[in-house]
Each structure stands twice: as structure tokens, then as C-alpha cells.
Amino acid sequence: MSAHTESSRPKLGSRRAENAFFAAAVLVFIAGIALSFAPSLAASAFVLRWIGLVLFLPVAWRRRSLLVWTFYAMIAGVVLGLDAPHFSGQLRVIGDVFLRLIRMIVAPLIFGGIVTGIAGHSELKGVGRVALKAVLFFEVVTTLGLVLGLIAINLSHAGVGVTLPATSQAVAPAAHSETWQQLILNIFPENIAQAVAQNQILQVAIFSLLFGTALATLPESKRAPLVTVLQSLTDTMFRMTKIIMVIAPLAAGAAMAYTVSSAGLHLLASLALLAVTYYGAIAAFILLVLIPILVAGRISVRRFAAAIAEPAAIGFATTSSEAALPLAMERLEEFGVPRWIVSFVVPTGYSFNMTGSSVYLTMAAIFAAQAAGIHLSLGEQLIMLATLMLTSKGVAGVPRATLVVLMASAADLHIPSSAILVLLGVDTLMDMGRSAMNVIGNCMAAVVVARWEGELQDQSA
Fold first, then answer.
1. What is the pLDDT of residues 59-83, one digit of tens each?
2. Which GO BP annotation is one of this protein's (predicted)?
3. Do the beta carbons of residue 120 and residue 231 sit within 8 Å?
4. Contacts for 153 with CB less than 8 Å, ≥ 6 apart
């Protein structure tokens, strides 16, 4: 007993020291960031930022987890972006390399996962049910996100009093808005090689679904060899994911450094209330929508949060939910979701379940109207909400696509284009939250659908 007690004391003391280092690092770092807004205290801010960075290093070194290192790299990126902006401006290439490596493995990962799930595990009958349940879940959650964004901006009135550029009298030109026929047509690939090259993950998923269905109808003697090869392909892609994720913290830090060096901390000067409103709405969405759904589905909130923390952090730092896709798929499998459900639901969600974008769209549209001095009645706001429900589908694959969708809605409501373009000042900061929430929403969709199908394998924490 005494030996056990003696051996546990150093661990307890070590953990307390580690927590103390972490708390001190956070406080000192926040103080350094806060003082950055006071030019007369620039030297003090510089010293405090670097002290906070150094204090956090022992914590990151001891834990050595992807999440902790990503968080540390993001902090280091902020410091570099502020104190070495010219150098930080050259770091974008690291994030771009990381994104290219991720895009390189996404298509074969999805293809192998769906095909082996359908043809190798006799899940052909379940595909239709999973697709229907996934789309239903996507529509309900994104609609709730749109409604919550509408409520949040009407409560904060963040756009009231914002000064627009002198060109504010020009009405936004009608942006290109695809018809519902085009939206449906774009789901299906015309050329699978082109779909892979353009990173159209939903088209790749549709091809994989059809390929797996056709393969499942072949006799076992003809089906088994190809299933074995594709199973090995999928396992290899997951192993490549582990290799590529080694540089994820470096890519996250480089992306953060580039963002801060190009935009600066003062980008929130006139749009701070909008940023606070958005992240407050995100927090409310998690508490009022996502957590109740997990509880209703008898899914451990703590385990789910632990499983998706790293993919969400990568999405936040890189402002790309796609960058987190392979790791998210791996974590969902570890959580207990069958591979074929993960491989089908998650890619589909990247076009139909943009949770973070849905919260932002209505908020940004009403913000623009408020900034332009345009009063929208409740009926007009509901019409806008219904329009955004349709036009937001398929928004995932296009950078800054939310601005394109907003332009289309603004033209119908005669909102000046400058009221939309002023959002560019904080769009990168917003994109961080959008990307992280999109990752969380897609992961949650896979878990909920798996539970709904009775396929979720509960594992001990």
C-alpha cells in the first residue's frame, strides 16, 4: 500500500505542475494578445506572448498528442504572424502541401470504404435506408442551424451602425444560382477521373455506391478477389492518413501564422459584434441541438467529443473541413461506426450537412441588410431562410462559396453588394468556426445514423 502511495505521489505532483504551467501559459499569452491592441505597450505584449509560448512547451512535450500539438502550433502561429509577418507570409505553402496530401488520399479512401462495405459485408439492402436517414438528418440539422443564425442576429443587431464603403448605393448584381435540375445533375459524375481530379467527393461517393452495388451482384468467385484488393487499398489509405497527420500541427501553425500576418488582429475592429454573435450562436447550437441529439440517441457526449476533437481542431486551424476528413473517418471507425456507413455518410454530408455554414448564412444575410439600413419583415426573413435552405446545398466544394450564396440572396432583396463584401474583413475568422462545425456535424451524422441503424458498436471509454 505504501509503495503504491509513494509511486503515485510524483504522478500527482507532476500533473499539478503541468496544469499550473498550462494555466500560467494561457494567462500570460492572453495578456500578450490583449496588450497588442495598445501600441504604447507593444514591447510588453511581445515579451508576454513569447513567455506564454515557452511556458506551454513543457505541457505539449509531455502529452505529445495530435490535439495538444495542433493547439500549441496554432498559438505559435499567432505569435509568428504578429511578430514576424514577412516570414509568416511565406508559410502558406506548408498548409497548401498538407491540403494536397489530404486531397490525394480522399478519393481512394471513400471509394475503398464504400465498395468494400457494400460488396464485402452484404450491406446492399441497408444502403437505401442509410441514405434516406442521412439526408433526413442533414436537412433537419441544417434547417435548425439556419433558424438559430436568424434568431442570433436579430437579437444582437450586429449590422446596425456599420459604415459601408462609398459604393454602397450599388445594388448587388444577380449572382449565378443553380436550378434544382442542375443541383441534381451535379451529384452524378460524368467522368470519374474528372470527379477525382476536381475533388468532387459526392460524385466519387455516388460512383463508389454504384460500383459496390454492381460488384455485390456478382458471384462470390468473381467478387472476392477484387474485394480483397480494395480492402487492402482502404487499409493502406488509413495508414497513409496516420503518416500525413504527423505534419498536421505544422500545417495548422503555418496556416494560422499566414492568416494573422495577412489580416492582423485588428480585423475585428468594426465587426467584433458579428464575430461574437456567430461564435455565441455556435455555442448555443452545440448546447441546444447537437448535445440533445446525442443524449436522445444514447451516445456518450464525452466519448464523442474526445473522438472528434482532433479533426475539429485541424478543420479550425486550416479553415478547411476537407483537411480533417481522413482523420475524422478514422476516428469514427474507432468510435464504433462501421466503415461502410462512415464512407458513405461523411462525404455526403460535405454537400448536404454544412452545419457551420448554415448557422452563418442567415446571420450574414441579415447582417448585410442591417448594415445597408434595410428592414426585412418576418415574412421576408422566412423567405430568405427557405431560399438559403436550397441554395446552400452543394456549397462545400467551393472556397468562400458562402459569399456566392449570399450574393444571390442579396440580389433578390436589393441589398447592396458592399454590405456583403464588408464581411470579407472577418470571413477568415468565421471560416475557422464554420469548418470546425462542419466537421463536427458530419461526424455526428455518421454516429447518429449508425445508432439509428443499430450498427453502432459501443466501446468502453
1. 777 776 777 788 788 888 888 888 8
2. dicarboxylic acid transport
3. yes
4. 159, 277, 362, 363, 366, 367, 370
